[in-house]
Amino acid sequence: MASLALTSLYLPSLRSRLPNSESNARIRCSSLRSSIPKSAIFGSGVRTSFHIPSSLSNEAKFVKPGLNFGSSGRNLGGFTVRASSSSSSAAAAVPAPAPQPWQGAAIKPLIASIATGIILWFVPVPSGVSRNAWQLLAIFLATIVGIITQPLPLGAVALLGLGASVLTKTLTFSAAFSAFGDPIPWLIALAFFFARGFIKTGLGNRIAYQFVSLFGSSSLGLGYSLVFSEALLAPAIPSVSARAGGIFLPLVKSLCVACGSNVGDGTENRLGAWLMLTCFQTSVISSSMFLTAMAANPLSATLTYNTIKQTIGWTDWAKAAIVPGLISLIVVPLLLYVVYPPTVKSSPDAPKLAREKLEKMGPMTKNEIIMAGTLLLTVGLWVFGGVLNVDAVTAAILGLSVLLVTGVVTWKECLGEAVAWDTLTWFAALIAMAGYLNKYGLISWFSQTVVKFVGGLGLSWQLSFGILVLLYFYSHYFFASGAAHIGAMFTAFLSVASALGTPPYFGAIVLSFLSNLMGGLTHYGIGSAPVFYGANYVPLAQWWGYGFLVSVVNIIIWLGIGGIWWKAIGLW
């Protein structure tokens, strides 16, 4: 107690003798311990430490008056104050907190996206184009650049594009968000929810192991089994989004997982990347082979009749498409296998292992049976929906309702499907902007400009039609829907092709086929694109790059070999 009293007696004296700049410094007693005998505190030279400001060094040590600790000490009221580096060493030993990483947009891609929009915004508006249409084009292209470079996730980029269109009064709020009422984005989102149940119940693994046991000795054989299975279902299910998302995406994901190819762990190229890209690119081929394989195909047939008064029947369509279609279904998987190969190409033990896995799984569980029954119900409604007056998205909602009511899939799991909601957002945004480009007259202006340009070249009908075909095909980069593209440009291009000497029926058939094949260019050009791209196995740059490569191959096959076949059956 005497030592504590003495310490408290000296504190005021010490504080008053500190320099003015340090007069408010906090002094803290750190080493007095009640367990030390009173007589030992000062008599034994035990030091009492107080925290002194940095101008007096990091720590001052107070010792018994009269004891000499060298010239480094300072005498303050009978106490010798001596500097120590122990505190500074301790402080230095504590690492500074790491700065928080930037979690916002990637700056360079963001600048590139914004710069694209600004530059086009201030380009003089061409004659015949409204100011609103040109502004929307600037925002649309800026959004596309953002989707390619990805300064933010795709849904966020699309939302920024919609926000810019509303902020600049280019679109009203209801117009900008109108496509969220379109059935196609919702059908794609529902497909992801189905995939969740397919995998969760184990039904996906069971079917995947069956496929592997039959075709899994090679990756190429496995791929072809999926490609031709999808082509066989194509004429019966008139929605490519339903086929891709409701049936084949869950199956392909299960196959990838069963073969050890997962997203995010570096094994994407083991099998998944090639398989996803192959199934997508062949889905656009199978859609082009039958009148009932894609929802927009009947629109092409209707516009053909309205323009040239000739009918394209189901048999006529299939007969013209069968040869180039089958060749494309064979060539495209093999091409991708060469240029974008899976790292695992042969696995002779896979069928045996798959059969062992099936034995371990045992009989189907209750949830697997419910999932299988729901899938059959949904597919049945897709096949016979036209007769029953039930569209594809309604059938999918009914199927999901069964899964939710039975607990096979929970709503919390649906909410956790971030990719589904992200895809719904960006796909709906692009549909809305592309749709209003058409409504504002930009697509009509573009079609008329192309028609005047090609018509004024004075070329043969074959060369003129070739130019028209390429312009029609690659203008699909500006469309998020095959139906929108057909509705906007099909009639104008068919009319000009006919006027330039192209056999009208031949021109209509070719444009109808290309209206499907062009969907393979991007990750938003046809209903199956967001489904397979959303699985996240293939980076966006590779998706677009291989999409362009396959488009060239398809054009060569369909116009080259297809042209010979069409000549043989008398189309021209």
Automatic annotation (TrEMBL):
Keyword S-adenosyl-L-methionine part of the UniProt annotation: no
Gene Ontology CC terms: chloroplast envelope; chloroplast inner membrane
Main location: plastid
Membrane topology: Multi-pass membrane protein
Alphabetical keyword list: Membrane, Plastid, Plastid inner membrane, Transmembrane, Transmembrane helix
NCBIfam families for the chain: dass (TIGR00785)
Protein name: 2-oxoglutarate/malate translocator
